[in-house]
């Protein structure tokens, strides 16, 4: 298999910058501003809207949908399901972020229902991907991962096979799999999990890339761009406080040289 090169990744980032795809995000209250800024800095156009009454109209103009169950309540579930049905019918990509699945029955049921609707991509941390793929007895710590991404790799492959989605599991090393092909993406910074909603924001960025590229390639490219920008930002800050701002500045300025110095993609 030919692995996506960092030059291919850069070309897809330029495509995002040129086409500026509108990405419709139904995300959590914590992530809304951070994720919108990440999308803008990377060159895409975000809409953070969750009203059920606007789903059909946004479904006509947006090029991708992202669904994030971080601050879920039962009335939002119906909106997410309607949105998934609208984008599915329009043949537009859907990216699902199963925040804290495994922690509550509400999340477990909603996540299972949304996976059954056939999202294009599922992006989560290790605990979430393991819980979603049915690893029993996992102690959920809520929104933060209590496992390494490496430990979740088998679960990611199983989930990709059972759901038909491309699955991205993030952590110190990120993995993307479609059940057959698997690649690892290296980069990022150890401060990233100490700044909230950076995973949720990455899910939004995956939406922008799969709007302009096939699911597997778009997901790998989004993660590689984010890994490079995260590494650059992590070197600039003194702690997690200004990491989101530096990450946005790094995404905005990212070029091929920055990608090559700060991220790596390898087939496994
Ligand atoms: N130890 C680490 N070293 C380098 N990068 C990391 C590390 N941990 C996480 N990251 C990066 O941080 C980003 C978010 O991944 P993470 O797995 O922390 O998401 P998450 O738990 O869903 O986040 P959140 O729910 O707070 O939005 C990814 O780009 C990932 O590669
Ligand atoms: C902290 C937090 N709580 C619910 S969603 C969220 C953002 C990170 O997932
Ligand atoms: Mg998360």
């Amino acid at each position: 298999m030919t692995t996506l090169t960092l030059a291919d990744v850069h070309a897809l980032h330029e495509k995002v910058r040129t086409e500026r795809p509108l990405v419709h995000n139904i995300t959590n209250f914590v992530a809304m501003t951070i994720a919108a800024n990440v999308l803008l800095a990377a060159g895409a156009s975000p809409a953070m809207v969750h009203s059920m009454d606007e789903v059909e109209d946004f479904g006509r103009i947006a090029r991708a949908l992202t669904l994030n169950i971080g601050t879920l309540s039962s009335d939002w579930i119906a909106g997410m399901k309607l949105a998934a049905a609208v984008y599915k019918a329009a043949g537009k990509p859907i990216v699902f972020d199963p925040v804290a699945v495994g922690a509550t029955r509400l999340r477990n049921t909603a996540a299972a229902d949304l996976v059954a609707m056939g999202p294009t991509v599922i992006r989560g941390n290790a605990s979430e991907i393991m819980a979603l793929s049915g690893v029993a007895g996992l102690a959920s710590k809520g929104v933060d991962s209590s496992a390494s991404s490496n430990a979740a790799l088998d679960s990611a492959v199983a989930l990709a096979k059972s759901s038909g989605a491309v699955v991205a599991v993030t952590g110190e090393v990120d993995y993307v799999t479609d059940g057959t092909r698997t690649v690892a993406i290296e980069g990022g910074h150890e401060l990233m999990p100490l700044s909230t909603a950076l995973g949720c924001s990455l899910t939004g960025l995956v939406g922008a890339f799969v709007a302009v590229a096939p699911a597997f390639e778009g997901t790998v490219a989004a993660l590689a761009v984010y890994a490079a920008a995260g590494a650059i930002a992590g070197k600039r800050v003194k702690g997690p406080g200004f990491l989101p701002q530096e990450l946005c500045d790094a995404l905005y300025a990212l070029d091929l040289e920055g990608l090559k110095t700060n991220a790596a993609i390898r087939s496994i």
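The chain has one domain: 6-267. The first helix runs from residue 6 to 19.
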